[in-house]
Amino acid sequence: xxxxxxxxxxxxxxxxxxxxxxxxxxxxxxxxxxxxxxxxxxxxxxxxxxxxxxxxxxxxxxxxxxxxxxxxxxxxxxxxxxxxxxxxxxxxxxxxxxxxxxxxxxxxxxxxxxxxxxxxxxxxxxxxxxxxxxxxxxxxxxxxxxxxxxxxxxxxxxxxxxxxxxxxxxxxxxxxxxxxxxxxxxxxxxxxxxxxxxxxxxxxxxxxxxxxxxxxxxxxxxxxxxxxxxxx
Length: 232
Prior knowledge:
Blueprint: H1 24-27, H2 31-44, E1 49-52, H3 58-69, E2 73-77, E3 91-93, H4 100-108, E4 112-117, H5 123-126, E5 128-136, H6 146-159, E6 166-169, H7 172-178, H8 180-195, E7 203-208, H9 212-221, E8 226-231
Helix pairs in contact: 2-3, 2-8
């Protein structure tokens, strides 16, 4: 947040060294995406089955890898497996099917025990067991109203924190402010996993820092398995 600047003053309590085996460009894709995935799984608790909305996305892909490593059953909305995984590793749910929540309930015998969602869609609740949890990492807003829709979505999720299924808002910036030591341990572990090929990170597409608007346009048309990084 606020990184689009030529000079920054950052407290060392936020910093983690990048392993020698990992490029700075590849490392840049991990602090927000990787920590969001890992923290969302923490909020999901001991769930044995996890539904991941947008499993081919940068956060979804990392969440799937971390969940599988923990021995969880992974279901994901998408049409192809994320980079580094195969269809045999998970159950893919076609999000284009208007009845996809019913498919999840059928596959899991009553609903997934947890879901990680970045859309704010109410359909996700239908795919989760009444005793489960929905972890909201973001809220897809209307064009020009993204911030307002995110605030409304977060408020609605907070009101359902005791619902069935209950909901949790996963806000990495606020969590980091309160848990800097844990954040550094988490990020250090993710960077080490990526450096030693235990995690498959999206391939960075580097665009010059002074071409920031071109970078924003590139994010709309980037191929699967790639992420846009500003190079300085």
